[in-house]
Structure formats: structure tokens, C-alpha cells
Design a protein that fits this description.
The complex is a heterodimer. Helices cover 25% and strands 34% of the residues of chain A. Chain A has two helices and four strands. Chain A has a four-stranded antiparallel beta sheet with strand order 2-3-1-4, covered by helices on one side. In chain A, α1 packs across α2. Chain A is elongated. Chain B is mainly alpha-helical. Chain B has a single domain, classed as Up-down Bundle (Na+/H+ antiporter like fold). The radius of gyration of chain B is 22 Å and the shape is globular. The two termini of chain B are 13 Å apart. Classes of the chains: A alpha+beta, B mainly alpha. At the A-B interface, α2 of A face α3, α12 and α15 of B.
């Protein structure tokens, strides 16, 4: 079986930034993502307890490196200063490369 | 002089009595549990469900009342409430910006948090009145629904204006650089929140939908139709608030440490502003001819700060503002103050200005007679 190398971009941010993140994804033509609610601790203190608005969300996007770099750059520019947010890249292999272009 | 001290005594007595209600005691229990780091926690699904339940219950209640008493006379109180809310928001901004020295974003976010209304506070107020056996005008629930987006929209509009102005002045200073020009234009697009989008979102948001929907349902079904569901939406109402306030107490308790971080100015602001707004609200409502209970609820609408809707709206529309400021002050300081202390104060003022044979006038009567 042939595997294709693509990138996985993982964004962990406060749930109230989710909309802004999804808007940016949409703008860059990303059509698929997976998200789930999470909690954790970090420089902005413990998050994810109590009100739903205080939760964190983890969004996973698989696409080409080029596209994801553009996305990451815009996320960095527009959200890093105001929101609790981290993001990282990892290498993943997929079977159907055409799904992730 | 004597009667004045009697009123004060009565307010204190009412505050004392108010603390010993299940709703407030559960709130205090939540705070204690959070302070001693207990693992007491309300399951997430329930704490998400309860606000919806409370909104549905107060919506139905309002709809039923409106069916019985009509709503032709609701226009003036509603417009007055909107006007007051806008004036208060601007007033908060000036105080925060000039005296508090907060930046533009924090000032507008806080100003609108305190200009907005709190549905939870409103529910507690209704159960407080129910406890005292006093009714209020049903259309105030509709006022609650209409007021919800007003103050946010004003604050977001003014923030956009301020941002655009800042960018314009920056642009002028480096206008010969084409690249910078493009960059700045990009920034305008990013920083400006689309007002119509905010409006659409707040109107289609879950709080407004369930509240307005329940008002209509309550109006449509009337007392006969309500009978079949009253066990859920009437009998359980105060109990549900007690459970929800346990959750609010836990969250407020967890935030108590943050109060030190928001600063003395904001803590004083979070107590004085609701007191002022609330008392003005009671007096204005009385002047408009609202009942004694209605004036208390009107005052509470003016006094309350939003801590569930505000973060959801503001975090998106004014992301530059620090949420820790407006959530902590609204939930950690203003909410407890409103339900424990201000509510009985407004109740006393309202019964005083309405000259109702409430506890105060009874005392006065005896006082005068004894002399």
C-alpha cells in the first residue's frame, strides 16, 4: 500500500477562539477538520473547568505543508496576542492523498 | 431620623433573612466548597442544561403574565430600559477610561458587561419575589430579552470606531509607504467586527431563542395549558435555581483569588455601579408606574452584569480585552453582591416609594404610634 506524506496541524485554543480559527481555515480553502473539547493547564492558568466558555478545544487539520503554513501564519498573526492558543506540526501519512489537498 | 434608622434596620433584617434562603445558602456552599478545594462538581451536562431551563421557565412565566395583563403598556418601560442601558454603558466607559485608566478595549468590554443584563440574576430576583409573595409585570421578561444585545452592540460599534480612528491616524503618518498601506488595510479587516454579524448572532443565540420562544409559548398556552407542565416549570423553579447557584458558587469561589488581580478600583466599581444603576432603575420604574415587584425587577435588570453571555460575545467581538477582568468582576463580585445585598436594598426602596404596607411601613407605623 502506498502512503502519502502530508502534515498534521494541531491547534489547541480556548473554545471562544474556535470560530475565528474555523473562519481562517475556511478562508484558506481547508474543507475538513476534527475538533474535540479538552482541558489543561498552561501560562493562562487551568482551563476547562466550570463554564463551557472556559473550555479549550483541540482542532486537527491534515493538509499539505504549504497550505498549513499559510494557515499557521494567519493564526499566529491574528490570534496569538489575544487568545490562549498553541499550535504544532507533525508528519503523518495518509492513504488517500486527494482528500487532503 | 427615627424612621430612617428603622428603614436601615429593616434593610439589614431583610439582608439577613435573604442570606438564610436556600438559593443564597447553596451559593455560599459552592463558594466554601471551592475554597477548601473540594471535588464537588455539578455534572457538565446539568450546568449547561440549567440556564436553558431557567430561561424557559422565566419566559413561560412572562408569557403567561402577559396574556393575563396584556402588554400594550410595555413599550415605554422597554424603550426606557434600552435608553438607560445605553446611557449607563457610556457612563461606565467614561468612568473606567478616565478614572480607572483602563485601555479602550478593556473599558468597552467592562462597560458593556455592566450595561448588559444577567438572566441568572433575573431568575434569582423572580424567586426572591416569589418568596415574598409579590408578583411583577410579566413583560419584564420581554424587556430582558430585548436588552440582552443592546449594550454589547453599542460597545462593539464604539470599539470599531476607535480602532478605525487609530488605524487612520497611523495610516496618515506613513501614507507614502505602499506596503504599509496594504498591511494596515489588512489589519482593518481583521480588527473590525461586523456589527450585523454580532446582531444576527445575538438574536439567533440560544439565550434569546429560548427566552423569546418560551414567552410566545407561554402566551399561546395560557394558564390552562400551563397546568400540565407547571410541575416542571413552576414547582421546580426555585429548587433548580438553588442547584444552579451551587455551580455558580463553585465557579465564583474558584475565581476569588483572581479578584486580587483585577485591582481595588474594579472591585469598588463592581459594587458602586450596580448599586447606582439599580436604585436609578427602581426609581425610574416607579415613576413609570410599574408595580412594587416590577420596579425591583426593573432595578435588577439595570444593576445586573452579564457573565454568561458577555464572554461569548465579547471574546469574539473585542478579543483584545482581557476576559479575566470582566468575568471575574461580574461573577466574583457583582453577582454575589446583587443577589445577597442589593436585592433586599432595592426591595426596601421599592416598597418605601410604593408606600406599600410592607414590613417597612408597618415598622414606621408602630414607630410613630409609640411616640
Amino acid at each position: 500500500m502506498k502512503l502519502f506524506d502530508v502534515k498534521l496541524l494541531t491547534v489547541t485554543c480556548e473554545i471562544l477562539a474556535q470560530k475565528a480559527v474555523l473562519e481562517i481555515l475556511h478562508k484558506h480553502g481547508i474543507t475538513g477538520y476534527t475538533s474535540y473539547e479538552v482541558d489543561g493547564d498552561g501560562s493562562k492558568g487551568i482551563r476547562g473547568q466550570g463554564l463551557k466558555n472556559e473550555k479549550n478545544i483541540k482542532i486537527e487539520i491534515i493538509s499539505t505543508e504549504e497550505k498549513l503554513k499559510d494557515v499557521a501564519e494567519e493564526l499566529m498573526r491574528s490570534l496569538f496576542s489575544d487568545f490562549a492558543i498553541i499550535l504544532y506540526f507533525s508528519d503523518v501519512q495518509v492513504i488517500r492523498s486527494e482528500k487532503f489537498i | 431620623m427615627k424612621s430612617k434608622s428603622l428603614i436601615q434596620m429593616d434593610i439589614l433584617g431583610l439582608i439577613q433573612a435573604n442570606i438564610l434562603t436556600p438559593v443564597v445558602l447553596f451559593f455560599l456552599l459552592g463558594i466554601v466548597a471551592a475554597r477548601i478545594k473540594s471535588d464537588l462538581k455539578i455534572p457538565e451536562a446539568i450546568s449547561e442544561f440549567l440556564p436553558i431551563y431557567l430561561l424557559a421557565a422565566i419566559g413561560l412565566h412572562g408569557g403567561l403574565e402577559m396574556r393575563n395583563t396584556g402588554f400594550t403598556n410595555m413599550l415605554i418601560p422597554m424603550l426606557t430600559a434600552i435608553g438607560l442601558s445605553l446611557v449607563f454603558t457610556l457612563n461606565h466607559y467614561q468612568i473606567l477610561r478616565r478614572l480607572g485608566k483602563f485601555n479602550i478595549f478593556d473599558s468597552y468590554a467592562l462597560a458593556s458587561t455592566y450595561g448588559a443584563v444577567g438572566a441568572v440574576t433575573f431568575s434569582v430576583g423572580l424567586s426572591f419575589l416569589k418568596n415574598q409573595g409579590i408578583t411583577s409585570e410579566g413583560y419584564l421578561t420581554a424587556v430582558l430579552a430585548v436588552l440582552e444585545p443592546v449594550s454589547f452592540i453599542l460597545a462593539i460599534f464604539l470599539t470599531n470606531l476607535a480602532v478605525a480612528k487609530q488605524i487612520k491616524s497611523k495610516k496618515q503618518s506613513i501614507s507614502n509607504d505602499l506596503d504599509a498601506d496594504k498591511k494596515i488595510l489588512g489589519m482593518v479587516g481583521q480588527n473590525k467586527t461586523n456589527l450585523s454579524e454580532v446582531l444576527r448572532e445575538s438574536i439567533t443565540g440560544k439565550a434569546i431563542i429560548i427566552l423569546l420562544g418560551s414567552i410566545i409559548i407561554g402566551y399561546a398556552i395560557g394558564d390552562n395549558g400551563f397546568e400540565s407542565i407547571s410541575i416542571v416549570f413552576d414547582d421546580l423553579f426555585t429548587g433548580a435555581i438553588a442547584i444552579f447557584l451551587l455551580e455558580m458558587g463553585i465557579i465564583a469561589g474558584q475565581r476569588l483569588d483572581d479578584i486580587k488581580k483585577v485591582g481595588v478600583f474594579l472591585v469598588i466599581f463592581s459594587i458602586l455601579i450596580p448599586t447606582f444603576n439599580g436604585i436609578v432603575g427602581v426609581l425610574v420604574a416607579t415613576a413609570l408606574g410599574l408595580s412594587m415587584g416590577g420596579s425591583v425587577m426593573f432595578g435588577l435588570l439595570m444593576a445586573s452584569a452579564s457573565f454568561i453571555a458577555a464572554p461569548a460575545v465579547l471574546r469574539h467581538a473585542i478579543p483584545q480585552a482581557k476576559p479575566s477582568l470582566y468575568i471575574t468582576s461580574a461573577l466574583g463580585v457583582t453577582f454575589p453582591y446583587n443577589i445577597i445585598i442589593l436585592l433586599p436594598i432595592m426591595f426596601s426602596i421599592s416598597s418605601f416609594v410604593h408606600n406599600i404596607d410592607g414590613p417597612i411601613n408597618l415598622f414606621n407605623y408602630f414607630g410613630i404610634n409609640l411616640i
